Amino acid sequence: TDRNWIRATYYSGVMEAYHATGDPEYLEQALRWGQKHQWQVGQEITGFNRLFCTMTWVELHLLDAAPEKIAPTLETLAADLPYSPGGAKVWYGHGPAPHDKPLYADSLYGAPVLAMLHKATGDQKYLDILHHAFWDVTETIFDEEEDLYYRDPSYIGKNSPNGRKILWSRGNGWVFGGLPRILKHLPKDDPNYNRYVDLYRRMAKALASHQGDDGFWRSNLVDRWHYLMPESSGTAFFTAGFAWGVREGILDQATYLPVIIRGWNALVSAVHPSGLLGWVQPVDAQPRPSHPQSTQEYAVGPLLTAGGQIYQLV
Questions:
Q1: 3-state secondary structure the chain
Q2: 21-36 pLDDT, tens digit each
Q3: What's the average model confidence in pLDDT over 223-248?
C-alpha cells in the first residue's frame, strides 16, 4: 500500500514543492521512497494507476539520471500484460478485469509519465502511447457542451437529484492537474501539443465559471446543490492547474489570477492548526459529502503543488 495511487499523488506534490523551493529535504524524502521500493511500478492492476508512482521515479531520473530509476517502468510498459501497452491496445481502463473497461478520468493524472519517459529516452513510442490513450479516454467521456469530463461512461446521461449532469470535481481535478505536467514535458513541436493546450484552456474557462463565491468548488461541478459543502481535493487540483497556466503564459493573468487567489485562500482556510487539510472527499468515483475533518494524503499532493506554483508565480 506504500506505492499506490494515493501515496504517489502525495509525492507528486512533494516533487513540486522541491521544484519551487529547492529545499533538499523534499528531494531526499522522494528519493528515500523510490529507493525503498527499488523503483518498481505500482501494485494496482489498473494500467495508469500502476504508473502514478513512476512519475516520481522518472522525475528523479530527469534531475539525476540513473538507469535503475526507470528500468522497471520501461520493462512493465513493454510486458505482455492486459494492463500494459506491451500487451493490449486498450490497457488503460479501470481494472481488475476486463482491463479495457471502463475508461475513467482519474487515469489521466498518470499520463504525464509517458511524456517524461520520451524526454528521458528520446523514444517516440512513449508519445504515441500517450496520445492514443489520452485522446481515447477524452473522446469517450468528455462532455463537449460543458467542456468537462464525466468520471466514466456510466455517468453519461445520469442526473443528480436536481436533474443536473454529474460532473465530479476530483475526476476533473485529476485531468486538470495532469495537463500541466504533460505540457511541461511534451515537445512544443509535437503535433498534439496545441490540442492539449486547447483542451486545457477550455477546461480552465469552464472550471472558473463553477467556482463558488467562497473560492471552493463543490463535488458536483455543475450542481453545487448536489452536495453543498466545500471540497478541497478538487479545489487544490484546480488552483494548482490555474497557477501553472498563468505562470507559463498559457492562461490570461487578468482573467485567472482572481480565481487563483480565491482558490488559495479557500485552501488555506481548510488547513487546521495541526496542519491537517480538511473538507477532503474520501476515496470515491462520484460526488459525495466531505466534512471539516475529512482528509486524505492524495489531497495534500495537489495542495503542495498549488503552494509551489503560487510561490513561483508570486
A1: CCCCHHHHHHHHHHHHHHHHHCCHHHHHHHHHHHHHCCCCCCCCCCCCHHHHHHHHHHHHHHHCCCHHHHHHHHHHHHCCCCCCCCCCCCCCCCCCCCCCCCCCHHHHHHCHHHHHHHHHHCCCHHHHHHHHHHHHHHHHHEECCCCEECCCHHHCCCECCCCCECCEHHHHHHHHHHHHHHHHHCCCCCCCHHHHHHHHHHHHHHHHHCCCCCCCECCECCCCCCCCCCEHHHHHHHHHHHHHHHHCCCCCHHHHHHHHHHHHHHHHHHECCCCCECCCCCCCCCCCCCCCCCCCHHHHHHHHHHHHHHHHHC
A2: 999 999 999 999 999 9
A3: 98
Q: Torsions phi, psi of 231, nearest 5? A: -140, 120
Cβ neighbours of 195 (radius 10 Å): 14
